[in-house]
Design goal:
four-stranded antiparallel beta sheet; seven-stranded mixed beta sheet; globular; mainly beta; 124 residues
Amino acid sequence: VQLQASGGGLVQAGGSLRLICTASTSTFESLTVAWFRQAPGKEREPVAVVNRWGVTRRYADSVKGRFTISRDVDKNTAYLQMNSLNPEDTAVYFCAGSWKGFDDATQENDYEYWGQGTQVTVSS
């Protein structure tokens, strides 16, 4: 499965962006999907996770109430809607897929498939 992330860009604080993760095959529908991000000088961290049915979600505390992860099984696509962005959200964002179930896919090493990353820059 190949993943491609897009939708990043430059936005002012308080603005919104929607990231898109497109998968190459329908195998994507069987995977737990997550968005990670990596800021300069920092380790990659999980931002949001959604189960294979798109029903159960988990968020990092820093983005709760501002970000929403979703997926469209028919389109082999996942999304990250990001609202009320602030400069601390500046990072490269990656989508990832895991064969592990939602409760077990908690860390970077749990994910087998990765997109190439898309840059999000939030100006103050």
